[in-house]
Specification:
The structure is a single chain. By secondary structure, the chain is an alpha+beta fold. It has 2 domains: 148 residues, no CATH class; 40 residues. The chain contains 8 helices and 6 strands. Strands 1, 2, 3, 4, 5 and 6 form a 6-stranded antiparallel beta sheet that branches. The longest helix is centred in the last third of the chain and has 23 residues.
C-alpha cells in the first residue's frame, strides 16, 4: 500500500499575508512599501551631467541607514490600440497631405513592430521594515526558515500586531520622504504604489503571462483573496 502524495500549495510559498494601507505585510512581522520611480537616460547626459549623476547616486547609497531593493520589470508592449488610433485618425483627416503622412507613419510603425519587439521598462524601489520582534530573532533563523519551506502552510503564518503595523507606517513615511529628496538630486521622481496598484504589481509578477490586468484594477477588492487554493490529496 502506497501513501497518497500530498501536493504542496503554491500559497504556502508566498510570504505575503495582507496588503493594507499601501503597505505589503509579510509573514513574520515584516513590512514593505513599493515605490515606482521615473528613469533617466544616462547615455544622453553630457559628461558633466553623468559625473553629477554618479556623485548624487553615491551620496544616496552612502546616506541610507536602511537597505533598499531595486526591481526592474520588463514587459512586451501591446501597441494595437495605438495603431487603431492612428488608423481612425487617418480616415477622418480632411487634409490629403496629412492623410498621406499618417499612412506612411502607420506603415512605419507596423514594420517596426514586425522587425522588433517593443518593450517597456518600469523601475521600482522596495523599502523594508522589520518589527522589533523580528529583529530579536537569532542569526540562524533565516536559514532555519529556508530549510522548513516545504513544511510551510497557512497554519504556520505568524500574525502581526497592530502596534507594529502602525510603527511601520510611520517609519515608511520618513523613509519615503528621505528617498524622495535623494532621488530628486538625480532628477528622478518617486511615488508609492497604492493598495490596488500593489495587487496588480504582484498579480503580474506571479502571472507573467497575464498581459491585460484591467480586471485587477477594476475589481481590486475581489483580488484581495488568495491567488491560489490549497492543493487536495
Amino acid at each position: 500500500m502506497t501513501m497518497p502524495k500530498i501536493l504542496a500549495s503554491t500559497q504556502g510559498f508566498i510570504d505575503i499575508i495582507d496588503l493594507k494601507d499601501d503597505v505589503v505585510i509579510l509573514n513574520g512581522g515584516r513590512f514593505r512599501i513599493v515605490l515606482e520611480t521615473t528613469s533617466v537616460n544616462f547615455d544622453l547626459l553630457s559628461e558633466k551631467e553623468q559625473d553629477a549623476a554618479i556623485f548624487s547616486y553615491a551620496g544616496l547609497v552612502n546616506s541610507l541607514d536602511f537597505p533598499i531593493q531595486v526591481v526592474i520589470k520588463t514587459r512586451q508592449t501591446d501597441i494595437s490600440k495605438y495603431l487603431d488610433y492612428l488608423s481612425n485618425h487617418e480616415k477622418s483627416e480632411p487634409s490629403q497631405a496629412l492623410k498621406e503622412q499618417l499612412q506612411d507613419y502607420l506603415e512605419f510603425v507596423k514594420q517596426l513592430v514586425v522587425e522588433n519587439t517593443i518593450l517597456s521598462k518600469k523601475f521600482y524601489c522596495i523599502v523594508p521594515y522589520w518589527s522589533l520582534e523580528t529583529q530579536k530573532k537569532d542569526f540562524f533563523s533565516p536559514f532555519l526558515d529556508l530549510l522548513s519551506l516545504n513544511k510551510r502552510s497557512k497554519t504556520a503564518i505568524s500574525p502581526y500586531s497592530q502596534a507594529a503595523f502602525e510603527d511601520a507606517k510611520k517609519i515608511f513615511e520618513r523613509r519615503q520622504e528621505e528617498l524622495s529628496w535623494q532621488f530628486r538630486r538625480l532628477g528622478i521622481k518617486i511615488r508609492r504604489l497604492a493598495t490596488a496598484e500593489l495587487i496588480s504589481f504582484f498579480y503580474q509578477s506571479l502571472n507573467p503571462e497575464a498581459q491585460n490586468t484591467d480586471s485587477v484594477k477594476n475589481d481590486a477588492p475581489g483580488f484581495q483573496t488568495a491567488f491560489t487554493k490549497p492543493a487536495t490529496i
